[in-house]
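Researcher: I've been going back and forth with a colleague about how DUF1624 domain-containing protein might be arranged in three dimensions. Neither of us has a model we trust, so I'd like an independent prediction. The organism is Dyadobacter frigoris, in case that matters for your notes. Sequence below.
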Amino acid sequence: MINRSDVPTRLVSLDAMRGFTIALMITVNFPGSEEFVYATLSHSKWNGLTFTDLVAPFFLFIVGVSIVFAFSKKLEDQSPKNELYKKIIMRSLKIFAVGMFLNMMPDFDFLNLRWTGTLHRIAIVFLVCAILFLNSNWKQQAIIGITILILYCLAMNLIPTPGYGKVMLERGINLAAWVDQHYLPGKMWQGTWDPEGILSTFPSIVTGITGMLAGRLMLTDYSQTEKVSYLMSIGLFTAAAGYFWGLGFPVNENLWTSSFVLVTSGFAALLFGALYFVIDILGYQKGTKPGIIFGANAITIYVLADVFALFLYLLPFGGKTLNQHFVDTFISAGFAPKLASLIYALLFVSINFIPALLLYRKKVFIKL
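Model: Here is an independent structure prediction for DUF1624 domain-containing protein. You can compare it with whatever you and your colleague have in mind.
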């Protein structure tokens, strides 16, 4: 049963989780030097899981939770679905369009467009999950999610890659890569394959569904401590299930494997539960305030980071870009190269925190 009398319309812990995720996304996307990066701050080369690999699924999980809070009251009030569909479609198109704009910077080469990316996937997951939420209950959503994961696993492990005559899971020669090579328009991120390709988008939608299931839990009449217990228990079970599934279908972000969905969604539920306990139950916000500030305008700050990066990474000053000057200076001062690169990344995050703070103080919350 749902009881909204004691549930806030906006969870501060959710804003904090969103903000910390965006801050981490900026950190890993903009190191001082691509040559000097700690292993866990880089994406896995193929199979496996690094700290960085958690960023994208965490954000999609948050998208799912946010959908529940955004549309539950509207469903209860019997708002016309046609109007809701229009809002959902328009928001998805705007997020997708911003993603295309970022892909085209700085050259705006329309002949070599990449039609996929982080924001593109967020737009698609939001579109599908929001429409699904308006037309199904949580049990149906869970069944749909499980079915997608099973079918994706079977397809990738049983259907031979055309032209090879056998099942392939290696980069560039698996079924997902073959589908992208034949049906994905524009250029691909890795030439012969794309981590945000067609087939891998289906299990990424399930990541959004797991977020919706967590959001649905937050609107039940369970006590706050019971919600934390359920989030933690389910998160631990889901992550463990993903680990064991990964023994047969490896955890892989590039393919967004079924095991990857479960492991990362499990970790997301654990973090969400911890933040909910600390921030919304105990009321401790001081240490989490930077995340809350970033989270209030998450996508806006993500876009601004890409724009700021044009000046720091592309424009030369004295023969080098600003990030090269910074890293070289710190290395000359005796810092380890990877540490110098990380310090620069954290400084860049701090620079992006300034507009986030200004928007937050003025109570300006930009929604695409």
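Researcher: What would you highlight for our discussion?
Model: I'd start with this: Residues 12-24+51-287 form one domain. After that, consider the following. Strands lie at 316-317, 320-321.
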